[in-house]
Structures are given as C-alpha cells and as structure tokens.
C-alpha cells in the first residue's frame, strides 16, 4: 500500500521530507550523500595508476592484480545484499557508520599487506565497508524522493560519481610522486575517518521506527523473493548492472591500455582517464534538464541505443588501430556519456516500484551492479590487456543491456511505469 505526498509529511521527519525541503537543505543533502558516494569510486580507482607498480613490487602478474579490483567489486556486491535489509530493519545510520569503520581498518591493513593474496582479501573487506555507503545513500534518496524527482537528485549525485573517478587516478598519481602504492591506501584510510565525521554530524536518520521492516531473516527472504518475481524490476536492475559493467571494463583495462599499449606515464594516464569520464559527468547533468521535457523511459532507450552504437565503433577502432589513442578516446567518451544517461534513470524506474523496501531494493540493485562489474573486470584480463579486449567487454555490456531492455523489460511494460508517482510505504 502506498500514500501520497501528504503522507510523507507525516511519516518522514519534516526537515528532510523530500518535497518540503528548501534549496539549502537539498544542497546540504547532496553534499553529504555525495561524500558518501565518493568513497566508492575513490576506493576502486585511486590505486589504478599503481597497478603496474604493484605487479612488479609483489612479483605477480597483471591478471592477479586485476583480481584485486574484482575482490573490491565482489565485496561491494555481497555487502549490499547484507546491509540493505539491515538498514531497512534498524535504520540507515548504524549500518553506515559500521561500514565506514570496516573500510578504515581494511585500508590500513592494505597498506601493510605483504603479498598479492593479502591485498586481494583486504580489498574484499574494503568493498564490504564501502557497500554501506553506497546502499545507504541510495536508500536515503528513495526514502525522500521517487520517480523523476529521484532521477534528478540521483543525477546530481552521479556528478560526484563522475568527478571522483577523474580525481581518483589523478590523486593516486600525485601520491605516487612522493610515496609508493601503499601510500594510496593510507590516504583512503584518512578519507574514511573524515567521512565518518561527516556522516555522524550531517546525516540524520531518514527511516522512522514505524517504517522499519520487521521479521528477521524470513522477512528479508520474502522481500528478496518479491523483488525477484517482479520481471520489470529485475530487467531494469540488469540493465543498470550491464551499463555499470561497461564502465568497470574501462576501469579495469584502461591503465594497461593507456600505459603499456600507448606508453603514457602515471600522470598522463590520470589525465587520459579523466578525459574519458568527462562524458559521464556531462551526461548526468544534462539528464536533469532532459527530464524536464522527456520521461525517464525515453531517455533510457535513447541512451542505450547511443551506447551500443558507440561500443561497436570502439571495437572496430581498437581492432584496426585506426587513429591511435584519440580514436579510442572518442567512442569511449560517448559510451560513458550513454552510461551517464542510463544509470540515473534505470534505477529510478526500478526503485519507484518498491518504496516499501527501499533499502532491500537498493541493495539488490547495487549487488547486481557491482556483481556484474566484478565479472567484467577479470574478463578484460582474461581476454588480454590490449584495447581490443577492453573494447569488446565495453561493447558487450551495452549491447546486452539493450537486449535485456527489449526482451526482459519489454517496451509495453516500460511505458506502463508511472515514474512521477511519489510513493512512501505505510506499515
């Protein structure tokens, strides 16, 4: 059962009721949630310039080092499945602060790790900790907003998700000027401490006790079963995950492609990687304007079509070598732009269907996103460290996302979603 906006005022603390918030309150919310979201891309991307150095220092292979990225993504996926239902049961703040604490400890231990096996295991723990920030931030937005309002605010947060990957390799490259790869993990630990302070001071509880889920493990199982029986929800979650897979294929392969194949140094790599993310940032902010004229459904369909076409061009350029590095970057920019348009709208459409279990739904969404991403990273390594392998996985993610939208979600079901209906669960 759902209620209208009037119910929001009764069931949600007034200062944070989405439709009642002032511009200043919304800005503060975006800054706090943006800080939470930033730690994910920083944890994933900040050590990318150091991957070749880690390979040499720990006497291992590039494929083994890429598996440490997979470990982080796997931790993110598993952690969200656990933390999402927990946040629906006990509120948002406690799981969030516990996750940040785990991330801090894991980051410190990564800096002391003696071998690649230890780094891989600790990166899983880092991912588990970061999962709390990701799922809680998404659940908080869904506590307060739905449909197009969710997509607009999430687009603002996607700006952070775009800027953070740009800054992360650049920050990592800067740290490597005066420290080795271990200094990157020390910096992540320091950022975790700062984030714990921001979360403690700046994020009130957004899930009142009367709206929390009860029933323990059995209720959690029923919630997941309900979500998985919703074909449209599952399809949109898969679309989001496959778009994310294209991004993580870029993350996993870019350091080797740009540094080994095209000869860029660590600082030049940071610039090239950042240039690729410009498309993502631009598209997420363009999405806010587009939502004033078009539905999330139309934007999502157009984005996937654009990403599929650009992915195919990328494969051709990589296979032929035509145009060198600039010719690789151009279609990459378009793919990232397409992902920047798809990823705010697909989750908004999916989560608008299940406001009664926002944390659990956000957890499943995040788990699929990072789970598929965890598979795409080693797939790039298995196919090779060149541009063709990276391009093939990127294009495959976009093509498969389009196929899922057409075959699983289906156009008629997609059009039937009412994204502007603001729904808050009543219990």
Number of domains: 1
Q: How much beta, percentage-wise?
A: under 5%
- Given the C-alpha coordinates, what overall shape results? globular
Please identify the top-level CATH class.
Mainly Alpha
Per the CATH scheme, the topology name is: Growth Hormone, Chain: A
Q: Tell me the total number of β-strands.
A: 2
In the CATH classification, which architecture applies? Up-down Bundle
| Major beta sheet summary | 2 strands, antiparallel
Any descriptors?
427 residues; two-stranded antiparallel sheet; 1% strand; Growth Hormone, Chain: A; 16 helices; single chain; mainly alpha
Explain this structure to me?
This protein is mostly helical and 427 residues long. It has a single domain (2-417), classed as Growth Hormone, Chain: A (Up-down Bundle), CATH 1.20.1250. 81% of the residues lie in helices and 1% in strands. The longest helix has 32 residues, at 147-178. Residues 1-16 and 419-427 have low confidence and may be disordered.
Explain briefly what this protein structure is.
81% of the residues lie in helices and 1% in strands. It is mainly α and 427 residues long. The protein has one domain: Growth Hormone, Chain: A.
Topology:
Elements (H helix, E strand, L loop, with lengths): L1 E2 L1 H7 L11 H23 L5 H7 L4 H29 L2 H19 L4 H29 L2 H32 L2 H22 L13 H14 L1 H31 L4 H25 L5 H25 L3 H28 L6 H26 L3 H23 L1 H6 L7 E2 L2
Antiparallel strand pairs: 1-2
Helix pairs in contact: 2-6, 2-7, 2-8, 3-4, 4-5, 4-6, 4-14, 5-6, 5-8, 6-14, 7-11, 7-13, 10-11, 10-13, 10-14, 10-15, 11-13, 12-13, 12-15, 14-15
């Amino acid at each position: 059962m759902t209620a209208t906006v009037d119910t929001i005022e009764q069931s949600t603390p007034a200062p944070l009721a989405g439709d009642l918030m002032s511009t200043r309150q919304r800005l503060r919310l975006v800054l706090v949630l943006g800080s939470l979201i930033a730690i994910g891309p920083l944890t994933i991307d900040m050590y990318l310039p150091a991957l070749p150095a880690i390979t040499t220092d720990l006497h291992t292979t590039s494929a083994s080092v890429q598996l440490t990225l997979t470990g982080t993504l796997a931790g993110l996926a598993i952690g969200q499945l656990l933390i999402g239902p927990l946040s629906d049961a006990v509120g948002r703040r406690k799981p969030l602060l516990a996750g940040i604490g785990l991330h801090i400890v894991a980051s410190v231990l990564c800096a002391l790790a003696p071998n690649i096996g230890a780094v891989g295991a600790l990166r899983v723990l880092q991912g588990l900790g970061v999962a709390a920030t990701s799922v809680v931030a998404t659940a908080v937005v869904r506590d307060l907003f739905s449909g197009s309002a969710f997509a607009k605010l999430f687009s603002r947060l996607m700006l952070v998700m775009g800027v953070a990957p740009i800054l992360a390799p650049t920050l990592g490259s800067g740290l490597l000027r005066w420290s080795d790869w271990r200094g990157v993990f020390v910096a992540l630990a320091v950022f975790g401490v700062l984030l714990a302070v921001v979360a403690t001071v700046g994020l009130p509880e957004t899930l009142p006790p009367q709206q929390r889920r009860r029933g323990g493990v059995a209720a959690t199982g029923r919630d997941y079963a309900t979500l998985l029986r919703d074909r449209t929800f599952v399809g949109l979650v898969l679309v989001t995950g496959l778009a994310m897979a294209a991004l993580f294929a870029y993350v996993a392969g870019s350091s080797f492609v740009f540094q080994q194949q095209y000869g860029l140094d660590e600082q030049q790599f940071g610039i090239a990687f950042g240039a690729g993310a410009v498309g993502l940032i631009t598209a997420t902010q363009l999405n806010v304007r587009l939502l004033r004229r078009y539905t999330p459904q139309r934007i999502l369909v157009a984005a996937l079509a654009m990403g599929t076409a650009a992915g195919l061009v990328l494969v051709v350029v990589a296979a032929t070598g035509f145009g060198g590095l600039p010719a690789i970057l151009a279609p990459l920019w378009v793919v990232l732009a397409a992902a920047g348009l798809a990823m705010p709208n697909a989750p908004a459409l999916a989560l608008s269907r299940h406001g009664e279990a926002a944390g659990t739904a956000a957890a499943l969404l995040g788990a699929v996103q990072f789970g598929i991403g965890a598979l795409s990273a080693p797939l790039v390594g298995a196919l090779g460290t060149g541009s063709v392998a990276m391009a093939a996985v990127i294009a495959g993610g976009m093509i498969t996302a389009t196929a899922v939208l057409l075959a699983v979600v289906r156009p008629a079901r997609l059009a039937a979603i009412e994204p502007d209906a603001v729904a808050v669960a009543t219990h």
